[in-house]
Design brief:
Radius of gyration: 23 Å
Structural class: alpha/beta
Helix content: 10-25%
Shape: globular
Largest sheet: 7 strands, mixed
Distance between the termini: 30 Å
Length: about 475
């Protein structure tokens, strides 16, 4: 019979939840993690691009690789996971030892209803995308309108192309990354349109997702209308004023078959609100103290359900801290601390003509003068910046992250990347080789499936799990 009493229950099996569960376990607590999807990893399963882990591990990993490190540790520690399970209700009771409060969690899965009792809860439920219906766009709702995340899911997990000619609304990081991904898969990205006067995404993503592929970014511009009945046939764009209102007379029609919407993320906190947790109007996440404890004693929040982070490394750090705190609370060693305000740094505008270093999350703007062997670099905060600027000037290199087809019906594609950087000029040629390859066997993360692609010295390696049921 499955145990139904735990010291700490973590709700959410993404990067924050995995980190919280591991941290609480290491602190000596009996831990159960509840995840509504059949597989752990959260959104990282479909984030096959690199750039993860620079803070946490000091190296650039793809999303599946980053998640794999925590999933492997989670499994090795023998922590209980309830996957494909949905929490339907959380109630508070005062029936535990010494009259302390406990929580009763009701959940439903394919095996039926179940109840779990716990001393403390860590909410790691992540966030969701704003949809086209949450943006003021006139017109019908034909096929061909996707959020950036849903388009990412179709391409990276299901192996289905969603567009031939598309427009992207919003310059959030997922939208920028999808601009590159769609381009590499053969679609034409006509432009990225951002209503604000500055980009929303990280400077390094502007550099390697738009500038690398000559995809135009239009600031202070938005989509005002969608044309088409059964399928998108075009969109209307217009300039906006200081109040973000469309300026009459600036409208322009752009013919396309797809609109990708990347207009922000909202922390998922319906469960938090159902048990009386106060929500911060600025972050849209729970109001927490320095220990990530909400104003409901014993309930902690972390990751993107706490507030939306730019980097998954910081999501992990918040999960680790919340897990430790929840374990301390379960042992009766943690009370309530003072609240604190989360300070989210403003986006940094990129100066036209400057090189943006992509070697770390700082995204330093580099000024390069000279040529050949006589190059001077200014603006870098570390030696990596100078080395990057010289290479970027003489021979730009990139890691290629994509997917390959498989013979497994329930897992049609699997994430891969080049083991090292290859010349940027060879990206599309490398894609042709990778697209002609089919994986016909189970391969562990890190397994080489194509050696020395294009004679570059880089191998193509598997970065996502090929699950047992796909054999």
């Amino acid at each position: 019979m499955m145990n139904n009493k735990y010291d700490v229950v973590v709700i959410g099996g993404g990067p924050a939840g995995l980190a919280a569960a591991i941290s609480a376990h290491k602190a000596g607590s009996a831990v159960c993690l509840i995840e509504r999807e059949p597989k752990l990893g959260g959104i990282l399963k479909q984030c096959i691009h690199d750039g993860f882990g620079l803070v946490q591990f000091g190296e650039k990993l793809s999303g599946p690789e980053y998640a794999e490190r925590f999933i492997k540790e989670f499994e090795e520690l023998g922590i209980t996971a309830r996957t494909s399970s949905f929490v339907t209700e959380i109630t508070r009771h005062s029936e535990q030892r010494d009259g302390d409060q406990c929580f009763v969690i009701k959940l439903v899965s394919s095996s039926g209803m179940d109840t779990i009792i716990t001393e403390s809860i860590v909410l790691a439920t992540g966030c969701r995308e704003r949809t086209a219906r949450q943006v003021s766009i006139h017109g019908t709702r034909p096929a061909g309108i996707f959020t950036a995340g849903s388009a990412q899911n179709y391409i990276n997990l299901l192996g289905q192309q969603v567009a031939r000619k598309c427009v992207i609304l919003g310059s959030g990081d997922i939208g920028l990354i999808m601009a590159r991904r769609l381009t590499l898969e053969g679609a034409e990205v006509l432009g990225v349109y951002e209503v604000l006067p500055v980009p929303s995404g990280l400077a390094r993503n502007i550099r390697q997702c738009l500038e690398d592929f000559d995809i135009p970014l239009h600031l202070s511009t938005t989509v005002t209308k969608v044309f088409g009945n059964e399928r998108v046939e075009g969109v209307e764009i217009a300039k906006v004023d200081e109040d973000l209102k469309p300026i009459p007379g600036t409208e322009e029609r752009i013919d396309c078959d797809t609109l990708i919407v990347s207009v922000g993320l909202i922390p998922e906190n319906e469960l938090a609100e159902s048990i009386g947790v106060s929500i911060d109007p600025k972050t849209k996440g729970p109001s927490c103290d320095v220990n990530y404890q909400t104003d409901v004693p014993g309930v902690f929040s972390c990751g993107n359900s706490f507030h939306v982070y730019d980097l998954v490394d910081y999501v992990t750090q918040s999960g680790e801290a919340a897990g430790r705190s929840a374990a301390e609370y379960a042992k009766g060693r943690l009370g309530r601390a003072a609240h604190f305000d989360v300070v989210i740094p403003p986006k940094k505008a990129v100066t036209p003509g400057r090189i943006v270093c992509i070697g770390c999350p700082k995204g330093c703007e580099l000024e390069v003068t000279g040529s050949g062997d006589d190059i001077t670099v200014k603006g870098n905060s570390c030696p990596k910046g100078e080395a990057f600027a010289v290479q970027e000037t003489l021979r730009p290199m990139r890691v290629l992250c994509t997917s390959v087809r498989t013979v497994f019906p329930d897992q049609p594609v699997i994430a891969v990347r080049t083991s090292t950087e290859i010349p940027k000029a060879q990206l599309f040629e490398a894609m042709e080789i990778i697209n002609s390859f089919t994986l016909d066997h189970r391969a562990e993360v890190g397994k080489v499936i194509i050696k020395d692609i294009l004679g570059s010295g880089a191998d193509v390696i598997v970065t996502g799990r090929v699950y047992e049921q796909a054999m």
